[in-house]
Amino acid sequence: MRFDTLQEWLDWQETLHPVSIELKLERVAAVADALRLRDHCPTTLTIAGTNGKGTVATVLSALLHAMGYRVGTYTSPHLLRYNERVAIDGQPVGDADLCAAFAAADAARGEHTLTYFEFGTLAALWLFQRENVDFQVLEVGLGGRLDAVNVWDPDVAVITSVDLDHEQWLGPDRESIGREKAGILRAGRPAVLGEEAPPDSVLEVARMRGAEVFRQGCDFALVPGQETLQWFWAGSPTRLDIRPDPSFGLEGARLANVATALAVVQVLGLSSKLNTAILEQGLLAAPAGRLQTIPGAPGWVLDVAHNAQSAGELARWLGAHPVPGPTVAIVAIMADKRRAPMWELLGAHIDGWVTTPIPSARALSAEALASELRTAGFGSVAVTDNPAAAMQLAPKQAGSEGRVLVFGSFLTVQAVLERWPSENGQAEASVA
Questions:
Q1: Nearest partner of 149 among 133, 138, 162, 134, judged by Cα
Q2: Which of 44, 73, 314, 394 could form a disulfide with 305 if both were Cys (CB 3.0 to 4.6 A apart)?
Q3: At a CB cut-off of 8 Å and minimum separation 6, what does 291 contact?
């Protein structure tokens, strides 16, 4: 084995390939075939989309596992530990397992260099094959057509949403981006679309490939009622035997994402296995950092929103859940993001801003971000030298009746979560 520790493997992978992102399938396909990872695949569920991929993957995996199936789940990025990216039956795999998988991919790659994400994808699929999972749930990293997970043919393809993000890689508008994400669709295989109005390009690719389309709001919907949830499938309503519970957080985008996961269960022909206990396990499952709330005085809300679509959902949630005191945001964001629409959407819901640096060469500096926010008309903007300082300042500004909001990037939420016990004391977190 080339290295003994997981961190050594990860550090090396970041330097092996000449560029960190290169959207091509040939390298991954060659190594996957050398490892025979496309022979006798488990049922493959591939999830693409601008937002909501992680939630759909988490809920779907939880539902399938609660039904008694063995489920491998591959998601990205991680928040606290790399191991979060590869889970079997809801539990992250251990360092030793990942090291063994990386060693297998390294031995099989020959002269091929691989990116960090490509190594991780091969490692995840190698572990899923070794563990003989029944389902592998694969979250697309970037786009779809040329993403590493698209080397495997999905039995069901899911596109959660399409909006402007990663334009330098995927194209300048929703139609271009939708066409890239629709690259995961396969002829004669079901395609579950989580939007009521997806780009025309998605529907066009589906027609061209002969994929069987099931669309939110057209073929399926999940509507919460006073007594139970109402599930609509292809015009035939079925009452789901579960009472609404605030802890499920079934509203807005999360409601749509849960409906999308349930549609996959329906397409797989497994809806007859659903019961109250299974539904509860699925509905309570949620990835960290998605409207994650931590009670206290003030309370905290952590969300990885980093584009206009996710900022709009965050703004909707903040408006629907007011607090007596001010909302103070700790924010850091990448310089290549379209930020003005985010500030426009969120500005009315944020009373104070605290900018902080995060460890990425792509990040906008805390000073530049503060200047941009002031130029946009926000008066209460403070700059801190590090996340720890931001975590001390923001609660003081929010006061006991306010709340602290953390958003802008996975790295922003990560910076707070990894410091939480030492800076604020241990607290129970939930997902709204």
A1: 138
A2: 314
A3: 249, 254, 301, 302, 303, 314, 317, 431, 432
Write b or e for each residue in 2-14: b if 16 or more Cβ atoms lie within 10 A of its Cβ, otherwise e.
ebeebeebbeebe
Structure tokens belonging to residue 97: 């397992």
Query: How many CB atoms neighbour CB 29 within 10 A?
Result: 16
Which positions ≥6 away from 202 have C-beta within 8 Å?
159, 162, 178, 179, 181, 182, 193
Topology given in CATH for the domain delimited by 6-284: UDP-N-acetylmuramoyl-L-alanine:D-glutamate ligase (3.40.1190)
Helix (H, G, I), strand (E, B) or coil at 92: strand
Task: For the chain, give every domain's residue range.
Answer: 6-284, 292-431
Q: Model pTM?
A: 0.92
For residue range 71-120, list pLDDT tens digits in order: 999 999 999 999 999 999 999 999 999 999 999 999 999 988 899 999 99
Homologous superfamily (CATH) for 292-431: Mur ligase, C-terminal domain (3.90.190.20)
For residue 418, count other CB atoms closer than 10 A to its CB.
14
Among candidate residues 134, 131, 124, the one with its CA nearest the CA of residue 66 = 134
Helix or strand or coil: residue 124?
Answer: helix
Please write the tens of the pLDDT for every residue from 19-52: 666 778 999 999 999 999 999 899 999 999 999 9
263 CB-near residues (< 8 Å, 6+ apart): 192, 214, 216, 219, 220, 233
In terms of Cα–Cα distance, which of 246, 243, 251, 244 is closest to 295? Answer: 246
